[in-house]
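Deliverable D2.4 — example input (C-alpha cells):
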C-alpha cells in the first residue's frame, strides 16, 4: 500500500444515535487495509478539526435529520467550510453521507441531498451507498442492510423513545458498508493517481 488512507467522519449528534452510526461508519472504513478513520464531531470548529479534514482523502458527512434537513449544528459547520471552499481546499477529495431520524422516511433524503450539494460546491467526488434495497421482498426483514432503500448514502431510523444502544442492527451494518465503500474507493483513487504519476 502506498501510504495510509485517511477517512474523516465529520458529524453532529445531539442524542447519540448519529454518533453510534458514525462509529459503525468508522469501523467499516477500518476494515479496509491501510486505512486510518477518525470521528470528527463538528460541534467545535477549531484548528484541529480543519487540519484533520484537510489531510483526509475522504470526508464522510453525518447529521441527524431535524425538521427535514441537516441539523443547525451541522449546517453551521457547512457554512464555516466556506473558508475552505474559497481556496478549493477539499477539491477532488471523496465525500459521502449518512443520517438518522425518527421516521422511516422522516425526509432523510433531503439531508443526504444537502450533503451532496455541499460536496459538489467543494468540488468533491460523491461516493454513493452502493447497496441494493433491503426489506423489499416478502422474504426480506427489517434487519436487512439498507432496509430503508436509500442510494445516496446511509440512512438509519431511530425510535425517539429508545437509546442509541437499541438502534436497528441492519442500519448500523449499512453505515459500516458505507465506511468500507468509501475507504476502498479512496484506496483505488490513491493507487490510480500514483500509477498516473509514474506513467507521466
Ligand atoms: C428538533 C428536532 C427535529 C426533528 N425532526 C425530525 C424530522 O424531520 N424527521 C424525523 O424523522 N425525525 C426528526 N427528529 C427526530 C431525530 O431525527 C431523531 O431523534 C434522531 O435519531 C436524533 O439523532 P441524534 O440522536 O444523533 O441527535 C427530530 C428531532 C428533533 C430534536
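Example output (designed residues):
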Amino acid at each position: 500500500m502506498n501510504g495510509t488512507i485517511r477517512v474523516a467522519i465529520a458529524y453532529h449528534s445531539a442524542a447519540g444515535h448519529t454518533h453510534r452510526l458514525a462509529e459503525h461508519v468508522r469501523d467499516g472504513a477500518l476494515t479496509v487495509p491501510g486505512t486510518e478513520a477518525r470521528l470528527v464531531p463538528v460541534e467545535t470548529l477549531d484548528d484541529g478539526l480543519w487540519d484533520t479534514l484537510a489531510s483526509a482523502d475522504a470526508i464522510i458527512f453525518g447529521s441527524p435529520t431535524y425538521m427535514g434537513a441537516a441539523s443547525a449544528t451541522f449546517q453551521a459547520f457547512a457554512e464555516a467550510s466556506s473558508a475552505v471552499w474559497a481556496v478549493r481546499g477539499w477539491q477532488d477529495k471523496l465525500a459521502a453521507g449518512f443520517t438518522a431520524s425518527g421516521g422511516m422516511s422522516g425526509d432523510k433524503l433531503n439531508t443526504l441531498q444537502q450533503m451532496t450539494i455541499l460536496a459538489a460546491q467543494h468540488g468533491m467526488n460523491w461516493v454513493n451507498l452502493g447497496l441494493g434495497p433491503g426489506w423489499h421482498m416478502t422474504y426480506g426483514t427489517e434487519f436487512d442492510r439498507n432496509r430503508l432503500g436509500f442510494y445516496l448514502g446511509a440512512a438509519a431510523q431511530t425510535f425517539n423513545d429508545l437509546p442509541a444502544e437499541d438502534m436497528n442492527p441492519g442500519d448500523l451494518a449499512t453505515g459500516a458498508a458505507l465506511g468500507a465503500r468509501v475507504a476502498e474507493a479512496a484506496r483505488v483513487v490513491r493507487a490510480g493517481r500514483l500509477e498516473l504519476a509514474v506513467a507521466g
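The pocket of flavin mononucleotide is lined by residues 13-19, 64-68, 100-103, 106-107, 158, 160 (CB under 6 Å).
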